[in-house]
Design brief:
alpha+beta, Aminopeptidase, 5-stranded mixed β-sheet, 4 helices, about 30% helix
Length: about 150
């Protein structure tokens, strides 16, 4: 869950990269990135439906190669809660930076378009540092999250 005192500055998107909002990227590319990060992949048809029914999703791509290096999907009840799903970034020395970019931008959009929503995230352990840097608290007040596998 996002803490109240997160006032981070936007991480700089590296030269040669582009951040896209809800623009179609193949489910195969997203699943390959999830797999490279040892995360659960999704059945393509179910995942396409999940993307379609999400409020938005962000993809961080290398411009020239169109390689996917970062992804997050956001859902909301449009009143109280916004949730980040499938948060992932290309493994390697830039992973934390890529993850910070998609997390920061997702939070920025949620705060602008879904004000008042608390923000939760289901994410792998590798993302904890980036999430905490963006103001998230690990299981605040003992709150645990439940998820639905696609």
């Amino acid at each position: 869950m996002l803490g109240l005192n997160s006032s981070n500055k936007c991480p700089q998107i590296p030269e040669g990269f582009i951040l896209l909002r809800s623009e179609l990227v193949s489910v195969g590319k997203i699943n390959r990135l999830l797999s490279r990060c040892n995360q659960d992949t999704h059945q393509p048809k179910k995942f396409e439906l999940a993307l379609k029914n999400s409020d938005f999703y962000l993809t961080l791509l290398q411009k020239t190669s169109q390689n996917l290096v970062g992804f997050v999907r956001v859902t909301s009840d449009k009143g109280l809660n916004a949730n980040l799903w499938d948060l992932v970034a290309e493994p390697g020395d830039k992973q934390e930076k890529y993850m910070s970019i998609v997390v920061f931008k997702a939070i920025e959009i949620i705060r602008r378009e879904l004000p008042g929503c608390s923000i939760s995230v289901a994410a792998p352990l590798i993302s904890l540092k980036s999430l905490q840097a963006n103001g998230f608290l690990l299981d605040p007040n003992g709150i645990k999250i439940m998820g639905f596998r696609l």
